[in-house]
Amino acid sequence: LLSHFSSTGFWGLVNNAGISTFGETGWLPMETYEKFADVNLLGSIRTTLAFLPLLRKYKGRIVFMSSIIAYFTLGNGIYSMTKAAIEKFCDALRLEMKKFGVQVCIIQPGNYARSTKIQPPLSAEEIWSELSEEEKAVYNKEYVQERADFFNSILSEGSTNGSEVVDAMVDALTSPAPKARYMVAKLKEKALVLVCALFPTAVMDSVLSYALSK
Question: Which segments cross the bilayer (predicted)?
Answer without folding.
Answer: 62-79, 191-212
